[in-house]
Write a structure and sequence with these properties.
The complex is a heterodimer of chains A (195) and B (142).
Chain A lengths: L2 E4 L15 E6 L6 E8 L2 E7 L4 E6 L8 H12 L1 H7 L2 H17 L2 H19 L13 H20 L1 H7 L3 H4 L6 H12 L1
Antiparallel strand pairs in A: 1-2, 2-5, 3-4, 4-5
Chain B lengths: L13 H4 L6 H6 L6 H13 L8 H28 L18 H27 L13
Helix pairs in contact in B: 3-4, 4-5
The chains are: A alpha+beta (195), B mainly alpha (142).
Chain lengths: 195, 142
């Protein structure tokens, strides 16, 4: 089973390299296209890929929790992108990376490599993306907010134009008075309608 | 018509806490037809829906109008309370020297406030309807 060793850096917020080594095993044993088996336990990310050409076990043994997931993804994608990975590596690791990547090129065809890169990128995104729940904010909630508040606003406007106007015309003080007019009451009223 | 146009719902009581919904529906029903709780809070929240990560200009402009409306409602309320004798005019030195406004003065003030609030409401509606996605309903003007 051919084995490829890569050196790369995973950058966090502080731009400090956290990891510099990865092992990839490649073989041509499998004939079925099984997309991916992934696991992410104990800060270990394993990606197993089988297709009719190759079988790849991709493993990252340490993913610091304080590194944003998207940056991990970018780091991994960068790793598989031969041309750009060296640019990210510091001088000490650059020569090692270059040697390793040359070794990889000699054992893998360009097509296989690009295919594997696409698979790994997809796998990583599959692993990372479901972990965060989709939360709509702002304008994305516009339809929901419209359904919720439009009836109150429409009724309020109609009330202002008809009933309140009549009460003011008749000087019906009891009809137009407010019981608790303060900023505290506004907060209180927000609680009432949003509990 | 609700008994009081701008009345706020009562505070939660001990009895409310024993109810299934915490007395929310019952208290909400007591809110006035143009009270903070029923309308202005909704207007505020609707305005906030037009912002994403940062507060948009549209939201700011709409909230300016809701602030005016809240002020108008509060002043109308105070005038109504003064007219009903439930509140005494503030000011003067230690409460002395203040003159209670007449009913006519209060009526005139309330009419001016009503017009100010109406203009503010129409401006709010104009801002809310501006550039609104086509599938959403437009608010009617007064």
């Amino acid at each position: 089973m051919p084995s490829l060793k890569f050196h790369f850096n995973l950058y966090g917020r502080t731009n400090v390299a956290r990891r510099r080594e990865k092992t990839v095993d490649v073989s041509d044993t499998s004939t079925n296209l099984k997309l991916l088996q992934t696991s992410n336990t104990n800060n270990k990310l394993h990606v197993f890929h089988h297709n009719f050409l190759s079988s790849i076990h991709f493993s990252i043994s340490f993913i610091p929790e304080n590194i944003p997931k998207m940056k991990c993804l970018i780091g991994i994608t960068t790793l598989w992108s031969l041309s750009s990975s060296q640019a990210y590596a510091p001088n000490a690791a650059r020569s090692k990376a270059a040697k390793s990547l040359k070794a990889a090129e000699s054992k893998l065809s360009r097509q296989d490599f690009l295919y594997a890169a696409a698979v790994i990128t997809t796998a990583t995104s599959l692993v990372f993306s479901p972990l965060e729940a989709a939360q709509a904010r702002g304008r994305a909630t516009l339809e929901f907010a419209c359904d919720r508040y439009y009836p109150r606003l429409e009724a309020g406007g109609a009330f202002y134009a008809s009933d309140l106007k009549k009460a003011i015309e008749k000087n019906d003080w009891a009809a137009i008075k407010v019981r608790i007019p303060s900023s505290a009451s506004l907060q209180h009223s927000m609680l009432v309608y949003n509990e | 018509m609700e008994k009081f146009a701008t009345q706020e719902p009562p505070k939660r009581s001990k009895e409310d806490k024993s109810k299934a919904d915490g007395g929310i529906a019952e208290r909400a029903a007591q809110a006035g037809g143009f009270s903070n709780a029923r309308v202005i809070t909704a207007a505020d929240l609707w305005a906030a829906s037009f912002s994403d990560n940062s507060i948009s200009t549209k939201t700011k402009q709409m909230k300016e109008q809701t602030a005016i409306l809240a002020e108008v409602v509060e002043k109308i309320n105070i005038s109504a309370k003064l007219a009903l004798g439930e509140e005494k005019p503030s000011g003067g030195f230690l409460g002395f020297g203040t003159k209670a406004p007449s009913q006519a003065q209060l009526a005139k003030e309330v009419r001016e406030l009503y017009i100010k609030g109406g203009n503010s409401w129409n401006q709010y509606v104009f801002l809310a309807n501006d550039d609104l996605p086509i599938q959403l309903k437009r608010l009617p003007y007064l």
